[in-house]
Amino acid sequence: MAAAQPLLQVEDLRTYFFTRRGVVKAVDGVSFSLEAGETLGIVGESGSGKTMTSLSLLRLIPQPGGKIVGGKVLFDGVDLLQLSESEMRDYRGSKISMILQDPMASLNPVYTVGEQVAEPLRQHQHLSGKALWDQVTEALRLLRIPSPRERLQNYPHQMSGGMRQRVVGGIAVSCLPKLIIADEPTTALDATIQAQYLAHLKDLQRETNVAMIFVSHDFGIVGRMCDRVAVMYAGKIVETASVRDLFDNPQHPYTIGLVNSVPRLDRKVERLASIEGQPPQLLNLPPGCRFAPRCYAVFDRCHLEEPPEMSASDDHSAACWRVGA
Ligand SMILES: Nc1ncnc2c1ncn2[C@@H]1O[C@H](COP(=O)(O)OP(=O)(O)O)[C@@H](O)[C@H]1O
Ligand code: SF4
Ligand SMILES: [Mg+2]
N or C: which terminal CB in the chain sees fewer CB atoms within 10 Å? Predict the structure, then answer.
């Protein structure tokens, strides 16, 4: 019997922007995989390519200029990059759904919440009448929205910020997708609502067994939400490991810097360690390791050759010449 294939397998994905100043390699050879029901965190500084990686999976690259120039996105064994645009539409919002960076902006003020949760179900599952409204109610119930039947009649402005956020989550799960991509879903929220919302997303996942790609620049949140983590730097994944391995035994100097900058309750920190310097411009990248200008462990070879992915242990790899050496 063949080994079970992962739900999602991304291989050597490349998404470039062709600008007047040159080619911006926003996603430059990204590979990772995800099992059903699993949560993978993608973490990295602003501009490292997290959003472009997420959007590439659904082929929603900003135009003009952006183009997926290579790689594979195998979802249940089907390469999404080879599908026609109309075939691709069957995946978006049904098998794979997305919670955007600014979820407030994704609700329409002139329709009721019920209408907006119902829309993808009508479109993708061709539900109507009682079956439709039962499933809409069920989606709101999953989100722990009190009195879901009455709430369906509300317009977004009649709900609190936290509840609106949950509605956006409700829209994302209403079609029972196999994968949710959540791109910084809590960045616009205050700390209390953020904690509640993350707990809801976790509950939701437990109840529906949906896999999730959770994108964040916040290492602490990723640690709480995810099973595995991929660390991105300048358009590449530089380290992948289980959450525990990554925090306890980080390998790449960039990850080590990130882990040390996360405040920990069990440790008294005088000052947050931060990584000096800026990420490189993704236009006209120098040869060698992209982290070299900021790396405390840099040596000659780093400036000459780009480090390949090296295996640190089972299911833990990092792109650094020092790993496994
Ligand atoms: N419309 C665009 N035109 C040109 N370059 C872009 C565009 N959008 C994003 N980029 C480039 O892609 C890189 C990655 O962006 P993004 O994926 O949004 O980063 P992140 O989500 O990690 O903050 C940016 O650093 C920028 O150089
Ligand atoms: S390859 Fe060299 S420069 Fe890059 S992270 Fe490793 S030690 Fe630092
Ligand atoms: Mg982003």
Answer: N
Judge whether 58 lies within some domain.
Answer: yes
Mean pLDDT value of segment 11-37 = 95
In a domain, 140, yes or no: no
List the residue whose alpha carbon is closest to atom 4 of ligand 1. Answer: 17
Give the pTM.
0.89
d(CA 256, CA 238): 11
Residue ranges making up the domain that contains 258: 8-95+175-318
Mean pLDDT throughout 196-218?
86
Q: Which residues line ligand 1 (CB under 6 A)?
A: 17, 19, 24, 26, 44, 46-52, 62, 65-66, 282
Ligand nearest to the CA of 283: 1
Q: What CATH number is attached to the domain comprising 206?
A: 3.40.50.300
Q: What residues are neighbours of ligand 3 (ion), with CB under 5 Å?
A: 50-51
Q: Which ligand is nearest to the CA of 231?
A: 1
Residue range 169-190: mean pLDDT, rounded: 82
pLDDT digits (tens, 9 = 90+) for 282-316: 887 889 999 999 999 999 999 999 999 999 998 99
